[in-house]
């Protein structure tokens, strides 16, 4: 009765081989590496570029471990030390320029035949890096949509020769005013036709004349929000690529949040500045006919103008109408002008160049101001527990210059304080603007030294805890204890193999989960062995006791593990990073321990005791 | 090590003093939660935590002074070693919150360029509230899921018994955190949820045996039957708790400062959970007047009659 069919042995062997194969890559340490990819399809990463890279590195005397092609337009170069890696990145950037992106990377040093199996990813708390949770300011996205609609209404009504008195923003909707009801009805028909599913129009009671109330439909608001989120994710991804981070994570979380994880980034300040800024440019004519100082002193701003300040604090009156916005910029590079002042060279797209050519052509010899716009959001919690968000828009005139000639596709702006600033502005303009401001609601940065400490401590505690349990089991249950120890070892290998297979991210709480599973996984064996002891006391023969012990303990093990599994699933469902890691390892550990502790130990016990005819005593 | 003979300790007989002890512990926990509350970490309150390392022993007073001079309401203390310092900054009005960490680091760097950033955590106020609410929801969901499973597998009174034991364990563990003013952060919440899983595991094993004995030992009354069950599962309960405690102690001493709180919470929870699965869970079954008949599944009526027939 204590024999297992052959297929069960084969299954156990197969699972063991599978486990070892998938777990093995985790034993190899990571190597410093650089990943190079081409920035666009126009410049492929071909053999000539590769030769160029090789020559550059040889010239600098930087030894490489290997150069691998990871796919079209992607190359990985390994180095023996992080110092060489950093020096090489600098050298490659210098020689290749902006057409290629380089990113620092940690590549696993697994031997070639094992490369198709990947080790577990290490979480930010183990390798160092930055984790941001950003919230998209949806109110501004809606605001933007409303002001765009109001602009469109004016154009449409003007085009259809329907006279209106004004379009104004009231709360979360727009009100369009007319002289009489006849005009209003005509406008309503026209507008309704144009914005069938996007905006609802209804009559609004006013003291004089007539008015229409325009409200964005639920659907429209939902779409606007979704678009803002998607657009922001795209922009953030571009900006992260510009920062040169390998394996970044940029993911949507919920309806209005974005998670950004940047492994290996050691300076959160720069990352935060680049990711969080909604900097963009606007070009406006300077109102030269009016006195800006007088307007500032009296607080009365002439109609059609806005009052801004220059960097040195001087007030400037600019025309309300925008000549060009940053939306049309396709490329921007930091550089220096003829006076060696930091500058940004800007390239516009086709539509933008046409618009700008027309606007500047009509205003040659007039002054034009470059406005730098930045959003900053501050969130504070009020006494009563409600959350208050304040978004400040900071507009600054960074440069005023006389339009010498018609400008179009390419031009240069100056007036920046430092090369660092021109570099950042160029980067932001290149990556595109955010559809709505984002602000950081959570940040977790782990320095590289703490990451290294964490991983060392994690490994140490797993090994020590594991060995303690092995010793205890061997002493307490003797031969059966040794069998349980084999199962426990296989369980540990399987957990690591499954985590590697799923490409799960190992975090410190995840290691805690593994350690805890080691402690709890022996529970199944303890249950079985205690039962066997009991059956022996009840007078059963050793063979019958084994059989009955395994059978009777099974339902208890199943009940106990399913309830723990419920807790693990709930933990996972809660959805926060560190707890999720713990829950995954716990759940995997429970399931794999069912296999190793029941089927695995039984197979070995059967091998030891199953063949013998007459057993007098069990070593338990 | 040799357990050839069956132990027979009268656990159920000790249920009165055990109950008084448990009630006192729970009252102390609830009292402390009301009076002291929990020392909630930055995860739940919002704010900024900065861990920095120095090449030699750090001067905490000096750091505190330089931060106070910059108008930061900061708590500064050594963290683990004399070289490491933990700075907590409560959320406050006005400043751009997500920049607090950067500002503090630059102040520290100015005072001593050798300072090394080890960890910065910033949690916005709305996230703190959400995490707290989600944590509560998760706890309730876990309890509800378990209640349903145990009711299906056993009987309603068993699930109430299991929940009483769980609430007992969670309350006392949280209470100890409240009484000692240890920091309660997200990892502690994870530990509490893991304790729910562990303590339940323990309780289910005992209940499983109670059910088996109720159906097997027909002439014996409920109290005796429960006592036998606890004794029969006792060595398993102790061995499993021991192995779990072994790894938790390894985690506590070698796992690093970040999971110190987690492993400590688990150690407390495993000890309380072991106690409760012996004394609390089964006692509550007796208090609810559990009977053998309650466990006989209705569809087994036929089998029952046949058995009766053969006996008569």
Question: What can you tell me about this protein's structure?
Answer:
The complex is a heterodimer of chains A (620) and B (312). Chain A is elongated. In chain A, the strands form 6 sheets. Chain A has a 5-stranded mixed barrel with strand order 13-15-14-19-18. Chain A has 4 domains: 6-25 and 452-610, Multidrug efflux transporter AcrB transmembrane domain (Multidrug efflux transporter AcrB transmembrane fold), CATH 1.20.1640.10; 29-109, Alpha-Beta Plaits, CATH 3.30.70.260; 139-221, Alpha-Beta Plaits; 277-443, 2-Layer Sandwich (Gyrase A, domain 2). Chain A has 620 residues and is an alpha+beta fold. Helices cover 49% and strands 26% of the residues of chain A. In chain A, a hairpin with a 3-residue loop joins β11 (249-253) and β12. Chain A contains 15 helices and 22 strands. With 312 residues, chain B is an alpha+beta fold. Chain B has 2 domains: 12-39 and 127-299, Multidrug efflux transporter AcrB transmembrane domain (Multidrug efflux transporter AcrB transmembrane fold, Up-down Bundle); 47-123, Alpha-Beta Plaits. Chain B is 67% helix and 11% strand. Chain B has helices at 15-35, 42-45, 60-69, 100-111, 125-153, 156-180, 186-216, 222-254, 260-287, 292-295, 301-311, and strands spanning 39-40, 47-53, 74-79, 81-89, 116-123, 183-184. In chain B, α7 packs antiparallel against α8 (222-254), α7 runs parallel beside α9 and α8 runs antiparallel to α9 (260-287). The longest helix of chain B is centred in the last third of the chain and has 33 residues, at 222-254. Residues 299-312 of chain B have low confidence and may be disordered. At the A-B interface, α8, β18, β21, α12 and α13 of A face β5, α5, α7, α8 and α9 of B.
């Amino acid at each position: 009765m204590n024999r297992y069919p052959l297929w069960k042995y084969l299954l156990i062997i197969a699972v063991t081989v599978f486990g070892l194969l998938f777990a093995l890559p985790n034993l190899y340490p990571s190597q410093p590496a650089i990943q190079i990819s081409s920035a666009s399809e126009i410049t492929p990463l071909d053999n000539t570029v590769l030769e160029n890279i090789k020559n550059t590195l040889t010239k600098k005397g930087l030894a490489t471990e290997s150069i691998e092609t990871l796919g079209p337009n992607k190359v990985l170069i390994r180095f023996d030390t992080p110092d060489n890696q950093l020096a090489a990145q600098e050298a490659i950037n210098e020689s290749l320029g902006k057409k290629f992106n380089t990113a620092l990377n940690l590549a696993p040093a697994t031997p070639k035949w094992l490369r198709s199996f990947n080790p577990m990813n290490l979480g930010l708390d183990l390798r160092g890096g930055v984790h941001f949770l950003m919230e998209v300011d949806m109110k501004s996205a809606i605001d933007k949509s409303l002001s765009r609609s109001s602009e469109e209404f004016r154009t449409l009504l003007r085009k259809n020769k329907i006279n209106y008195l004004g379009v104004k923003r009231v709360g979360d909707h727009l009100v369009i005013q007319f002289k009489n009801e006849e005009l209003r009805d005509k406008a309503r028909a026209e507008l309704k036709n144009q914005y069938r599913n996007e905006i609802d129009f209804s009559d609004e009671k006013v003291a004089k004349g007539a008015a229409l109330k325009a409200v964005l439909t639920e659907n429209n608001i939902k779409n606007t929000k979704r678009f803002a989120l998607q657009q922001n994710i795209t922009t953030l991804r571009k900006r992260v690529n510009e920062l040169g981070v390998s394996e970044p994570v940029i993911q949507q979380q919920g309806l209005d949040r974005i998670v950004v994880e940047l492994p290996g980034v050691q300076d959160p300040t720069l990352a935060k500045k680049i990711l969080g800024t909604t900097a963009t440019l606007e070009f406006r004519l300077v109102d030269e006919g009016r006195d800006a100082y007088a307007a500032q002193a009296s607080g009365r701003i002439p109609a059609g103008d806005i009052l801004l300040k220059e960097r040195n604090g001087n007030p400037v009156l600019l025309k309300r109408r925008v000549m060009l916005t940053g939306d049309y910029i396709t490329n921007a590079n930091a550089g220096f002008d003829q006076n060696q002042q930091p500058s940004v060279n800007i390239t516009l797209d086709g539509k933008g160049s046409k618009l700008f050519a027309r606007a500047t052509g009509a205003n040659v010899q007039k002054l034009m101001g470059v406005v730098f716009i930045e959003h900053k959001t501050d969130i504070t919690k009020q006494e009563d527990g409600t959350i208050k968000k304040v978004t400040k828009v900071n507009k600054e005139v960074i440069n005023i210059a006389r339009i010498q000639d018609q400008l179009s596709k390419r031009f240069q702006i100056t007036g920046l304080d430092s090369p660092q600033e021109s570099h950042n502005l160029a980067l932001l303009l290149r990556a595109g603007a955010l559809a709505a401001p984002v602000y950081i609601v959570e940040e977790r940065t782990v320095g590289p030294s703490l990451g290294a400490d964490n991983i060392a401590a994690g490994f140490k505690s797993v090994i020590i805890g594991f060995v303690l349990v092995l010793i205890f089991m061997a002493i307490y249950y003797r031969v059966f204890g040794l069998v349980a120890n084999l199962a426990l070892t296989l369980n540990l290998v399987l957990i690591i193999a499954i985590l590697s297979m799923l490409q799960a991210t190992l975090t410190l709480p995840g290691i805690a989960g593994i350690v805890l599973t080691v402690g709890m996984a022996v529970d199944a064996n303890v249950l079985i062995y205690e039962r066997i002891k009991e059956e022996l006391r009840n007078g059963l023969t050793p063979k019958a006791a084994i059989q009955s012990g395994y059978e009777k303990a099974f339902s208890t093990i199943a009940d106990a593990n399913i309830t723990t599994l419920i807790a693990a699933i709930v933990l996972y469902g809660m959805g926060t990073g560190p707890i999720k890691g713990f829950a995954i390892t716990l759940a995997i550990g429970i399931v794999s321990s069912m296999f190793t502790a029941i089927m695995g130990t039984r197979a070995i016990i059967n091998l030891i005791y199953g063949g013998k005819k007459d057993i007098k005593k069990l070593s338990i | 090590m040799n357990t050839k003979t069956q132990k027979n300790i009268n656990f159920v007989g000790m249920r009165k003093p055990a109950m008084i002890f448990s009630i006192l512990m729970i009252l102390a926990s609830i009292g402390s939660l009301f009076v002291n509350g929990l020392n909630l970490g930055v995860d739940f309150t919002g704010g900024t935590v900065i861990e920095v390392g120095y090449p030699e022993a750090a001067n905490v007073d000096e750091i505190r002074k330089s931060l106070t001079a910059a108008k930061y309401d900061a708590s500064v203390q050594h963290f683990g070693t004399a070289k490491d310092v933990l700075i907590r900054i409560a959320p406050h009005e006005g400043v751009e919150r997500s920049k607090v960490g950067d500002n503090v680091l630059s102040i520290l760097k100015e005072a001593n360029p050798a300072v090394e950033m080890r960890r910065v955590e910033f949690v916005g106020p709305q996230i703190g509230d959400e995490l707290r609410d989600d944590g509560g929801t998760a706890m309730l969901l876990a309890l509800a899921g378990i209640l349903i499973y145990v009711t299906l597998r056993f009987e309603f009174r068993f699930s109430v018994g299991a929940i009483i034991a769980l609430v007992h364990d969670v309350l006392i563990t949280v209470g100890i955190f409240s009484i000692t003013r240890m920091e309660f952060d997200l990892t502690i919440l994870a530990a509490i949820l893991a304790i729910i899983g562990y303590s339940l595991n323990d309780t289910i094993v005992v209940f499983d045996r109670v059910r088996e004995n109720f159906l097997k030992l027909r002439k014996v009354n409920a109290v005796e039957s429960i006592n036998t069950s606890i004794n029969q599962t006792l060595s398993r309960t102790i061995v499993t708790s021991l192995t779990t405690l072994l790894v938790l102690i390894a985690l506590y001493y070698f796992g690093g400062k970040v999971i110190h709180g987690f492993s400590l919470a688990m150690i407390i929870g495993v000890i309380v959970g072991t106690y409760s699965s012996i004394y609390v869970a089964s006692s509550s079954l007796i208090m609810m007047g559990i009977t053998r008949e309650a466990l006989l599944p209705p569809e087994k009526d036929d089998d029952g009659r046949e058995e009766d027939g053969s006996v008569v």
